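TODO from last week: model Carbohydrate/purine kinase domain-containing protein.
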Amino acid sequence: MKTKIQIFGTVCLDKIRFIESFPNRLGSYTEVKKESLYLGGEASNSFVCLGNWLIDEQNKNQNVQLKLISVPLVNDDYGKWIKSHYLFQPFILKNSDLVSLDVMMVKDDKNEFTSTPCCDLYVCNQKERTMFGIGYKESENYAIRHQKEVLFDRLEFLGERYWVTFDYNTPTCSDLIIKKSIETLTNLLVLDHPFDFNQSDIAIDNLSRMNIIYQISTDYTDTKNDKSSTIQHLNNWLSNGNNKYCLMVLTDGANGFVIGGQIYNLKTKTKETVPTQWFDTYKITDVIDTIGSGDCFRAGLLYSIALHDYIALENLQEIMKFASASGGLNCKSIGGCTRTPTLSEIHQLQSTSSLL
């Protein structure tokens, strides 16, 4: 039976501007050295990575289907640019049986929101970045008002062979998706979105019969560059009631990541406990841009799980190593999905480098 991966969330236009350094004070000036337009958004980045891997001619996997369900886009210049760039993606045109997308374009007749999501990203030579967005909140507000049309008529919640993932940029929609997924025992990968799995309005009894992966960055936990605090944060989170039923993956960029919690073994129909363990990352040279590395890490997790057919203690190390290599190699190009690392590049990194 096929595994189906569904990604809901942000598809946007990224305007990336490269600068030498950020201004030292408010009102000062800094020069933009270069500016480029790219396809962006967390969901978009993960989708493009997964899509390219799934239709790789040497590793074509007919047992996995992938679908992107976008937040609403206005039929404006930004929206038309995004749609045209998706339609020109070769893997979508040639592999609709494996990879498909549902980009919702809406007419803004009632002035419900006025701009397709667009993000200005300023990247300095220290590889740090600052982002300014427009249209994200309006887009989600529209989705909430039209949740049947935008969410529940487009996403399939059909149980153990289905995975749903989504973005931090759509918090209210994400809450709705989480509750529906748990109600239907549909596997979840939650990215950077805070959620309390102790809420009384979710199907708590189902948590022990499904997979929930909670991937979050130290950017959100205030433990960046502090290994011991990062590990302690994970342990504290898992000790909070029903959170123990999840597998938490807490990433700290080039420093590494820590995992722990529980996974559901589809083969044995049981939950398996994952001891807290730290992974060093693969060493990546010539890092250009970290935009989208977490999205590519997520794509690597989902791809490797689907490739193994299920997630279990016996294959967890391999799954995590593939995700780490994916996220790291994505830093060697500009933008979140400008150039997806190939499967051969990922396998070569894994064979020539070690990860603890």
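Done. The chain has ten helices and 15 strands.
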